[in-house]
What does this fold into?
Amino acid sequence: MSITSDKIRIPRRAAVSLALCLVALSPVAAENALVTGIGNQTCAYWQSSPDHQAEGVAWIYGFWSGLNYATNQDHMIGQNIDALGKIDAVKKACDAEPATLLVD
It folds into this structure.
């Protein structure tokens, strides 16, 4: 899967992971939050295969949506960045520090 494609096909298990991530999100500090799925893996792991990339993309979209849902402010974190821009921003951060967890 190419992250820069216009259409991103999300495998069933990634969709299930996304649903589980959304359930796990709550308006608490990150250090106290339960994070499930590929978000607990390193950036290097996320980029290691097309399946992991697809799972990570689904997780990032869900996590970002969860941040907007849980924020006490305007619910518009990243409003000026399109979906692929969000993935590119995470990828750039991960390229700089591949040992970092995706959630960080």
